[in-house]
Amino acid sequence: MLRNTHRHFKFDWITIILFLLLAGFGWINIISASHVGEEINYFDFSQSYGKQLIFIFLTFILIILLLAIDAKFYERFSSVIYIISMLSLMGLFLFGKNVNGATSWYGIGGMTIQPSEFAKTATALAVAKFVSDLNTNIKNFKDQIQVFIIILIPAVLVLLQNDTGSTIVYGAFFFVLYREGLPKYYLNIGISLIVISILSLKFGGLVTSIVAALLILGYYLLIKRKSNVFLLILIFLISAGISFGIKFFYNALLQPHQKDRISLWLRLEKDPDKLEQMKKTFAYNLNESEKAISSGGFTGRGFMEGTRTTGKFVPEQHTDYIFSTVGEEWGFLGSSMVIIVFVLLLLRILHLAEIQKSQFSRIYGYSVASIIFVHFFINIGMVMGLIPTIGIPLPLFSYGGSGLWAFTILIFIFIKLDSNRINEW
Amino acid sequence: MRQFLLYIVIVLAGLLFISRLFYLQIYNPNSNNLFEDNAIRKVYDYPKRGFVFDRNGQLLVSNQPSYDVMVIPREVKPLDTLEFCSLLKIDKQAFKDKFEKAYSYSPRLPSVFIPQLSKADYAVLQEKMRKFEGFYIQKRSLRHYQTTIGANVLGSISEVTPGDIAKDPYYKRGDLKGKEGVEASYEDILRGVKGIKFIQKDRFNRNIGPYKDGIYDTIPEQGKDITITIDADLQAYGELLMENKRGGVIALEPSSGEILAMIAAPTFDPNLLVGRERTKNYYKLSIDTIAKPLFNRSIQGVYEPGSPFKLMNALIALQEGVITPQEIVTCSGGYRYGGRIMGCHCAYGTRNNMVGGIMHSCNAYFATAYRKILDKNGNASDGINKWSAHAKSFGLGNFLNNDLHVGQKGRIPDRDYYKHVYPNTFYSTYTISNAIGQGEVATTPIQLANMVAAIANRGYYYTPHIIKKIEGQDIPENFTTPKHTTIDKANFEPVIEGMLQVYKQGTASALQVKDIEICGKTGTVENFIKIDSVRTQLTDHSIFVAFAPKDNPKIALAVFVENGYWGSRFAGRVASLLIEKHIKGTITRTDLEDWLLKHTLEPEYAKPYSGEAFGINRNAVVEEVSPEEYKALKKQLAKLNNKNINAPKHAQTF
């Protein structure tokens, strides 16, 4: 009965509409960022925007396929999907194609496929499957280790392929695990680590240690007199150790270009000549993208009117830096709308996840929101100069078939799972 | 709580991004102005700069094409360097240096490889240019002076400075702008308005097409031709007479205020400031801080006017009714006041009325008149203010508000001026030097010429100006409106009679010109400089003012010749000759002409810098130029006379 009444409305149309809005507007900006000359032939498939149109068209076929498959399939075959996906990542070491220093692509005919984009979906399925298992208790240390391994395998594989950006995306699963009951100290340790690292790089180990000591002392005196003093001292010692040790990590483990990016972000470089040098090299993109966004003003210059976009001043503008096109041509109004639509999409997915009756669906939905959020945050934050340069695409916006399809699969598996919620009594 | 973490983080991230957008796009946006957008290349189309004609339609300044060899280093293909170098007349090392310089400026952008080729070199090179890929010839327009005179009148153009660009955003780097003379004062009219094309470029600075199909592009507006009031023949003649002297000459047409001649000596050939050699030549002219050829003495030179200023005092005395034309002042070889004496060259007991006082330039006469003006109401403070106001009504003591690019205010003192020297008591004798045009009074040649024009007009003047006609446009109304002085018409006659007598039997009687009634006044002015911080007197300046004819005057002028000793010696001769030239067109007093060409003051000017003791005035001998130079000057003179007869007055060359 119920099933029949809701037959046509069983998919969450709000999510689908938001998805289509983003993909459509993304394509419009890809036209601006990639067209050459005044003539635009939308079906010129030798151009990026023409290719992207094919990708979008194929996406619809993909969506129909994804929605046609039985919802139970995704849960049942999640392990298999995960394993295939991991194998495809490993296969890159043998057959991979090197593009821009990262060995992340398979070349098939004239096309390239980036398996790491799909690996996120596979990992989300695997994590959902593992954590929702009745035998798994995430508060249990042994189970924590197991789920970490599930996440770390793809993370390490893509790191080895020199795709640092994608590795960081796997951090998104922290939100998922935390939601599912990962002990609170993980959150505390995570935040502390980030804060300590940034503080000590910027202000040095001594200052950071003193700040840590004061905070711990304050905590002890004002909040919890009964806490274990030895534990607090241990925490302090570890914090101090990290404060002084981070410099070593920074110098020894990071690659030069990564160090440069962080030093620019934290304004560590004081030498004006070196800064000027940076502006001409790796910071060039950032500098140009900020200028492009800034020149958009309140209403923007209008579609295909952006002089910096038309002049291709921002390298990689149709891929990772696509948001600078939005900024220049659509101004504050358009860019804010894009951010609002992203936030609405994320909140909608989160909301749907929370109302799932199946734990698998909920965890998967949460993963979808987390992964998209991390992409969204890192990409736009980078393009606007808020965080160090990390090369990952803006979901649904950036040019590229693999990315578009991967996010489509990620989202529509969840839409399918969600549509099945009614049957799961 | 756990459920809300991601919600909160997402919303916070959204807010953070929107605030960042607000900062980048609204609080601190990049300009939307096309001119400041470095993604848009602005290509300018420069219009033809207007020509300059003299009052008789003789072309003075036009344009000439100039050819620069340009290079885009990246596009240069291997070439026959030997042939190329020989065509450009440079050696291989120079080729290498220039190429490297261009490359280091930018491999992709054009640089000037060889500026301003001669027409002959261009003709040869043009044929072979296509063999040298990456090089091309760019045509530019330079000024072409059709004359060698009037450098101070015409001025020149040069590339704008950052200061010019800051003042007027019309100018962009590399634009040319009038820097001196009429090129500067009529810059807006001469230059026209340049056209502009907006071209979209990419990040490699390459053009990728017109911006928005060129809807914002404009076409250039041609510069307008102007006609100036200068009579090129008179100017050339005056400049020749002033050779080997320093000073300034202004000749005006009293009935219109038009400047007939504006001579600054020493001067230079305006062609020196065109083209490849401009910078070098300009530097050479500018470092001559003794002769100062770039200093326009006729409008910038501030001198004590000396005796010609006595005319002013005579007019004021008459206007104030403190003296009548018939009143006799007895000169005792000087003027005694408060135990001091102001010398005079009159014999003891000479009795002068006004005409006599002007004719003999009697110091005692004018000291008496001056004191009477100041003491009229028994209060010298009021007196000097009234005196000052009368003098200022002749345009003295202030900028004339004319259309010349530079100028000086000169000085006519009033009570305020003396405040810090004489805070309380003030007597007319304190400023007695003003009576004879020395002391605190100071004027420029153009101000003095204007004063004479006002006398010639019997009470009014037109602001002296240099513009006669602007293509398709009227000249400013200010120049066609008479300015009235505070002196009544009737009071001019006795003064003019005195000036006439200066020529008939007074200090300029040796300078008469047949058939022309000239009214004049000589001036001899003491002057000092500091040599090693010792105040040293130099030979007096020779000054002369005149207008002619007495009725219906056609020309009024002021002549200053530095260190020329007495007024009629140098300045008077120049004045008489210019008057004859202007009125008759030919010269009968060739004796005066010869004398001026033959004599030089250069040795006089060199004296203070010689480090040796030297004599002045009667202890100095005026020297003659070498026979060769005299011959050369005579040849120049013959050329001028010839040209006057043969040259068609309305020749236009394009």
TrEMBL record, chain A:
A single MF term (Gene Ontology): lipid-linked peptidoglycan transporter activity
Protein location: Membrane
Family matches, as Pfam families: FTSW_RODA_SPOVE
Keyword Membrane part of the UniProt annotation: yes
Listed GO biological process terms: cell division; regulation of cell shape
Positions of transmembrane segments: 12-32, 52-70, 77-96, 145-178, 185-201, 230-250, 330-351, 363-390, 396-415
Membrane topology of the entry: Multi-pass membrane protein
Cellular component GO terms held in the UniProt record: cell division site; plasma membrane
Primary localization: membrane
Stored InterPro entries: FtsW/RodA
Alphabetized UniProt keyword annotations: Cell shape, Membrane, Transmembrane, Transmembrane helix
PANTHER family: CELL CYCLE PROTEIN, PEPTIDOGLYCAN GLYCOSYLTRANSFERASE MRDB
Name of the protein in question: Rod shape-determining protein RodA
Automatic annotation (TrEMBL), chain B:
Single Gene Ontology BP annotation: peptidoglycan biosynthetic process
Domain Penicillin-binding protein transpeptidase: 247-576
Subcellular localization: Cell membrane; Membrane
An example Gene Ontology CC term for this record: plasma membrane
Domain Penicillin-binding protein dimerisation: 46-208
Keyword flag Transmembrane helix: yes
EC number annotated for this UniProt entry: 3.4.16.4
Enzyme class: hydrolase
Name by which UniProt lists this protein: Penicillin-binding protein 2
Pfam families reported in the protein's UniProt record: PBP_dimer, Transpeptidase
Keyword annotations from UniProtKB, A to Z: Carboxypeptidase, Cell inner membrane, Cell membrane, Cell shape, Cell wall biogenesis/degradation, Hydrolase, Membrane, Peptidoglycan synthesis, Protease, Transmembrane, Transmembrane helix
GO function terms (MF aspect): penicillin binding; peptidoglycan L,D-transpeptidase activity; serine-type D-Ala-D-Ala carboxypeptidase activity
Topology in membrane: Single-pass membrane protein
Transmembrane regions: 5-23
Gene3D superfamilies listed in its UniProt record: DD-peptidase/beta-lactamase superfamily (3.40.710.10), Penicillin-binding protein 2a (Domain 2) (3.90.1310.10), Penicillin-binding protein 2a, domain 3 (3.30.1390.30)
Family matches, as SUPFAM superfamilies: beta-lactamase/transpeptidase-like, Penicillin binding protein dimerisation domain
